[in-house]
Amino acid sequence: MPGRSRALEEDEELVMDKAAYRLYYQLHVEAPCLSFDILLDCLGENRAVEVDGDPVTAYMVSGTQTAHKKPNNLIVMKLSNMKPMTKKETTEKEDNEDSSDSDSDSEDLDSQPELESAKIPHNGTINRVRAHQFNGVYLTATWSELGEVHIWDLSRSLSAVNDSAIMSEYVRTREAPSPLFTFKGHQTEGYALAWSPLAKAQGYLASGDVAGAIHIWQPRVS
Questions:
Q1: pLDDT tens for residues 208-220?
Q2: Where do Acidic residues bias regions lie (predicted)?
Q3: CA 207 to CA 194: how far, in whole Å?
Q4: Counting beta carbons within 10 angstroms of the beta carbon of residue 133, is it exposed (0 to 12), middle (13 to 18) or buried (19 or more)?
Q5: For a designed S-S bond to 62, which of 36, 110, 155, 164 qualifies (C-beta 3.0 to 4.6 A apart)?
Q6: Torsions phi, psi of 16, nearest 5?
Q7: Pick the CATH number of 18-90+112-217 from 3.30.360.10, 3.90.550.10, 3.40.1670.10, 2.130.10.10
Q8: Phi, psi at residue 219, to the nearest 5°?
Q9: pLDDT tens for residues 67-113?
Q10: Exposed/middle/buried for 49, CB within 10 Å: 0-12, 13-18, 19+?
Q11: pLDDT value of residue 202
């Protein structure tokens, strides 16, 4: 395969096959993110993305890995009005790409995808992010390069991306939610992080570091 089994020639270029996608968008954030996770929502469990279908909404959370001494953030995002591919887009030839680009430039602003994001300051770069819904609360665990594992409540940040008035207050006051809990028992940083999918172990969290140590966390009602 060109680009993998051999280098691309000067006159070669890898292009996407639109027929392989039902939905395709590129998202650019302020800093590189090594890890992200999708947040479960209440918009319907059985909804599907179909070619020529209705616009869709998704929620996600990511963690930044900025350059040395620059601040890092946990970023909660709402991506809405994302329109699936059309039959025309999935079957058009490369020769028609220029004309399709000009057509998209003239689209009404109301048809464009929308992004709302709320930042949560984070101590150290974020190696891994894993989200989980526990007892109706949206939790996210993060692995910090400083060897710490944090658990965050995303309720306030999610309210901000869903309500412009709350977002204005969130930004104006520079809200900086603190983690619900920080675990410092690891001796070094790590990347392995997983919430239990078992019904009998809801809220259990496993974290593993690069030295091979694994810790299992059990939630307790305070």
A1: 999 999 999 887 7
A2: 94-113
A3: 7
A4: middle
A5: 36
A6: -75, 150
A7: 2.130.10.10
A8: -70, 145
A9: 777 899 999 999 999 998 888 877 765 445 554 455 545 556 567 89
A10: middle
A11: 84
